[in-house]
Design goal:
about 100 residues; mainly alpha; 3 helices; elongated
Length: about 100
């Protein structure tokens, strides 16, 4: 039993269409490597739990980087918006003396 060329072309087309879906996504692990290194060293000295320390350090490092980027974006936004000028109150009218 031979496979038809149309069936082979269909299989090839489906496999090529699935390649982008199966491709790995970028990691976005900014802060994770430095946090993992620090956590591994701390975990090693805490009763030989280097792997657990590395996992915790990675999570903490990534979170700290995220917070730092949010603060940086907020500072840039605050610098870009003009400062609101406070409204000056108008001087109160002084009562005129009544002629008596």
């Amino acid at each position: 039993m031979k496979a038809s060329p149309i069936f082979a072309a269909g299989v090839l087309a489906l496999s090529l269409a699935a390649v982008p879906a199966l491709a790995p996504a970028p990691a976005g692990a900014v802060g994770c490597l430095s946090g993992a290194a620090a956590g591994a060293v701390a975990g090693h000295y805490a009763h030989h739990h280097a792997v657990l320390g590395a996992v915790g350090g990675c999570i903490a490092g990534h979170h700290m980087h995220k917070v730092q980027m949010q603060r940086k974006a907020a500072a840039a936004h605050a610098a870009a918006t003009p400062a609101a000028t406070p409204m000056t109150p108008e001087p109160a009218a002084t009562p005129s003396p009544s002629p008596t």
